[in-house]
User: What shape does this take?
Amino acid sequence: MKDKRDLKIQAIEEGTVIDHIKAGQALNVLRILGISSGCKGTVSFVMNAPGSGGRKDVVKIEGRELNVAELNRIALISPKATINIIRDFEVVQKNMVVLPSYVEGVVRCTNSNCISNSSEPIKSKFSVLQSEDGVVTLRCLYCEHVISENIAENLL
Assistant: This one.
């Protein structure tokens, strides 16, 4: 019998592992990906696991590879995340998410007077900036309002 310290999450045959997610953001990643209790494949996640750079979250999704829009959303809340594509139980591709310089229709502007929040059919548009310490900031291209906190709560 294995020592309890050696227990691991079961490996997946095909799918995606999102590693180095900012600690506490795994549930937001699941929300971004539209994963709920009705999901057919196995989904595993670990929160606040020890990592080389401090605490991290990890999400494993069996039978699914992510599209660019999903990766862009993950990058907004966890710009240091890595995406591992798994095939036949092996990592065949490993990439860091790339923080886009611009997003459209991804985040709701928190300025209630912004035209993107009106009845007009206008998608929100933000320029994306990252400070030297890794903090992501969004600047609305319509009203210049800045969002630097709670980005995950304002994702569309």
In short: Residues 102-154 form a domain with the SH3 type barrels. fold (CATH 2.30.30.20). The chain has a mean pLDDT of 89.
